[in-house]
Amino acid sequence: MTEESFDFVLGVNTKGTMFMSQCVARQMAGQAEESGARGIIVNIGSMSAEVSSVSRGEYCVSKAGVAMLTKLYGDRLARDHVYVYEVRPGIIATDMTAKVQEKYDKFFAENGCPINRWGTPEDIALAVSLLCEGRLPYTTGQYIDVDGGFHISRL
Fold first, then answer.
1. Measuring CA to CA, which residue among 131, 125, 127, 21 is closest to residue 80?
2. Cβ distance 33 to 83 under 8 Å?
3. 18: burial class by Cβ within 10 Å (0-12, 13-18, 19+)?
4. 39-44 and 142-146: which strand pairing?
5. How far is Cα 79 from Cα 82, in angstroms, rounded to an integer?
6. Within 13 Å and on the Cβ side, how many CA atoms surround 150?
7. In degrees, to the nearest 5, what angle opens at C-alpha 98 toward C-alphas 102 and 87?
8. CB 148 within 8 A of CB 119
């Protein structure tokens, strides 16, 4: 990886998430409560926050940063009744993964996941929607893996 690539990816994924969250949190903290919350922030992380991919090190580091930001903001904003979550997509069919489609097609052909298919953007949207509904009022700083069961330890 190059220093420029590292700076760019961390700038977009980690720094961008940090300052966007800070901006919206200020707005949310001043809002009237609705169903016990003033706001809900959902960060989009990645399974790469915990899974090493040596060819995408800067991406892994950036998403690990998003995971920590979720915890930090979850801790800090709970007193303002702003709740923070993270959705961690797994292998999702997008423009970003199109260039490695063959690799992941092989992974699924070899039964790599319990739910053995490509995830879709709609799968991620369903998880975000669930969190935004505010139906988990005693949680903050948590994440949901939307990864077809990839993180289940298997023998």
1. 21
2. no
3. middle
4. unpaired
5. 8
6. 21
7. 110
8. yes
Give the separation between CA 118 and CA 107, rounded to whole angstroms: 10
* Cβ atoms 138, 101 nearer than 8 A: no
Angle ∠(63,82,45) on CA atoms, nearest 5: 15
Does residue 83 contact residue 41 with C-beta atoms inside 8 Å? yes
- pTM of the prediction? 0.93
81: left (phi over 0), alpha (psi -120 to 50) or beta: left
**Could you read off the pLDDT tens digit of each residue along the chain, which spans 155 residues?**
999 999 999 999 999 999 999 999 999 999 999 989 999 999 999 999 999 999 899 999 999 999 999 999 999 999 999 999 999 999 999 999 999 999 999 999 999 999 999 999 999 999 999 999 999 999 999 999 999 999 998 87
Q: Which residues are catalytic?
A: 59
| CA neighbor of 11 nearest in space, from 56, 50, 66 | 66
